[in-house]
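STRUCTURE:
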């Protein structure tokens, strides 16, 4: 070895040691020194690119690693790291090409397969991504990262149970793996297992106190519990730790919006977009604040993203179309708004599973199972507590407004859209019985247990409240069961003009599973079936159980209708109910902004401006109730 080569190797070895120790500034200096001695030293150029990447200089990192590839194009690790930088920049097509080249050079390179899975996941190509992640595990079955990576992909697919199993396996392999603990917590949160989710995030933070993602994820779990002040503090801590963490800015925006601070929410969503301009969700949430004009730079940014067919995965394009629909509708630009809504809904409809025949058949089965004779025969059963007040109806019919009015009463707590009752009904299915047919043969003690289980869960949410509002709109499917298991409960059905209701549904990209809302004709047929079921409940329920309240009447005469509401709940009137917009309680639905304002009538008759373009909906709503789906 020549003296020059010996000197180069000594400096290079020192650079690697500093790099591994996390002393990046010194490592960078030493790599540069090697290159000054030997300009074509490929590994120094490659690792200098990695240091540059680690210190946030992505464009420079790409140039350096490409330089290393030019000197030594057959080193697979160079292609993998180049792909990693490109992936962080959102240049997913280029990243995929790099990972595929690495696999071509080294077919058994586990990390390349795993990274390829991550890039394909970012493109929305989830089945391909799962296959790549499984290949990485096959090649390195004891690699905790590979299991966690598969978990992230399964979670994106909606398989939270499979994701949880992957994260748990990763933790067994590496107990101190903070990322796996945090990912596990996020998957548990999706299943509504809040206490476990919080414990996982706290464990991740214990392992890595400055792990920004864990702080943000902890905030998300606390927010689900309604602990908004704590959640906001977590998001702000995450942002301090990692100012470019778009997710934390976005979560902060959602929390501030939920708390009734639209200006702060607007700023947070703008910051999220600045950190990750390709995330359609952030654009949509900013548009939902109502403060984006069609001539704004943000609209030009969204239009530019949509103009490039390969720029975004389909899921992000859907978000942008709904965002632009909201912006243009707020500006009364009807044709532009509906053009984007039609595209967004059409794309979304291809991504959801909806069995219309089975859904409409369920409505008929419920009507057949719950007869007036059944309700009469079962009188005197169940648990007679007056604690629950159920607010039901179609989404976007005014249920959030009604809950807000009720929850402004000092003796009433609004629990929001809780899943307690659907989970109680699931116990019937797990017991081998089908809903609704099994209800007729349920023994009295079973109904009593169902009612008691629901009340226990409800009471835990607000131990001192006289009434608690359960505002899950789709509980209209369970009105008969509510009356049998909880005969003391009161039900409020909120009605709104059918066309206004359906078009409002069509204009929103829901976070929950509402697959019937993305096609105008399907939406119209669903509404007719819903209305027929509600007419059935009206006919068979005893007087005084269900109050029907029209949104339009509420807008026209708030005091009269609000007094009806409170009387129906069995409480004395309180003037605070007229000032519902001052109530700072968390509101998690799409109506969070509207219920912070005094009552307004601009949403009444909203459909008329869309009449010319909403013909499939109008035809479906006018069709006879017994008409078969087209």
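SEQUENCE:
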């Amino acid at each position: 070895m020549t003296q020059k080569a010996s000197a180069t190797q000594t400096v290079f070895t020192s650079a690697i040691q500093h790099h591994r120790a996390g002393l990046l500034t010194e490592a960078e200096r030493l790599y540069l020194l090697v290159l000054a001695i030997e300009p074509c030293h490929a590994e120094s150029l490659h690792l200098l690119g990695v240091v540059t990447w680690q210190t946030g200089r992505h464009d420079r990192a790409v140039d350096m690693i490409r330089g290393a590839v030019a000197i030594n194009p057959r080193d697979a690790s160079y292609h993998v790291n180049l792909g990693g930088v490109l992936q962080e920049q959102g240049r997913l097509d280029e990243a995929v090409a790099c990972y595929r080249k690495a696999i071509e050079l080294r077919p058994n390179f586990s990390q390349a397969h795993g990274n390829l899975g991550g890039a394909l996941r970012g493109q929305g190509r989830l089945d391909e991504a799962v296959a790549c992640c499984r290949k990485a595990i096959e090649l390195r079955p004891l690699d905790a990262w590979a299991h966690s990576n598969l978990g992230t992909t399964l979670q994106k697919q909606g398989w939270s149970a499979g994701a949880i199993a992957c994260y748990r396996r990763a933790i067994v392999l590496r107990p101190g793996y903070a990322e796996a603990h945090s990912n596990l917590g996020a998957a548990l949160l999706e299943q509504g297992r809040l206490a476990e989710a919080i414990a996982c995030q706290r464990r991740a933070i214990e392992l890595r106190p400055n792990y920004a993602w864990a702080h943000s994820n902890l905030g998300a779990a606390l927010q689900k519990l309604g602990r908004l002040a704590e959640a906001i503090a977590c998001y702000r801590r995450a942002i301090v730790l990692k100012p470019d963490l778009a997710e934390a800015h976005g979560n902060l925006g959602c929390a501030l919006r939920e708390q009734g601070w639209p200006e702060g929410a607007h700023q947070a969503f703008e910051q999220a977009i600045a950190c990750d301009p390709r995330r359609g969700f952030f654009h949509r949430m900013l548009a939902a604040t109502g403060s984006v004009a069609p001539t704004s730079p943000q609209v030009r940014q969204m239009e530019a993203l949509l103009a490039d067919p390969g720029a975004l995965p389909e899921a992000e394009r859907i978000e942008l179309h709904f965002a632009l629909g909201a912006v243009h509708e707020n500006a009364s630009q009807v044709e532009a708004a509906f053009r984007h809504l039609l595209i967004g809904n059409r794309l979304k409809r291809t991504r959801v599973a909806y069995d219309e025949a089975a859904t409409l058949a369920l409505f008929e089965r419920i009507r057949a199972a719950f007869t007036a004779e059944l309700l009469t025969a079962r009188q005197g059963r169940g648990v007679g507590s007056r604690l629950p007040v159920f607010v039901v109806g179609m989404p976007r019919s005014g249920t959030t407004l009604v809950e807000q009015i009720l929850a402004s009463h000092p003796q009433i707590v609004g629990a929001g859209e809780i899943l307690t009752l659907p989970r109680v009904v699931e116990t019937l299915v797990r017991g081998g019985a089908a809903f609704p047919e099994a209800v007729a043969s349920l023994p009295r003690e079973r109904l009593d247990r169902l009612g008691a289980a629901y009340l226990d869960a409800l009471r835990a949410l607000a131990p001192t409240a006289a009434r608690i509002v359960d505002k899950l709109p789709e509980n209209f499917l369970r009105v008969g069961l509510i009356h049998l298991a909880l005969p003391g409960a009161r039900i409020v059905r909120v009605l709104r003009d059918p066309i206004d209701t359906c078009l409002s549904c069509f204009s929103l990209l829901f976070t929950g599973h509402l697959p019937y809302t993305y096609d105008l004709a399907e939406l119209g047929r669903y509404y007719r079936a819903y209305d027929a079921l509600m007419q059935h409940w009206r006919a068979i329920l005893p007087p005084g159980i269900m109050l029907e309240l029209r949104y339009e009447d509420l807008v026209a005469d708030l005091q009269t209708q609000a007094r009806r509401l409170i009387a129906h709940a069995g409480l004395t009137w309180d003037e605070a109910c007229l000032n519902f917009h001052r109530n700072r309680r968390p509101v998690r639905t799409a109506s969070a902004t509207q219920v912070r304002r005094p009552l307004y009538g601009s949403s009444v008759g909203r459909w008329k401006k869309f009449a010319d373009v909403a013909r499939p909906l109008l035809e479906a709503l006018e069709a006879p109730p017994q008409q078969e789906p087209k």
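REMARK: The radius of gyration is 28 Å.
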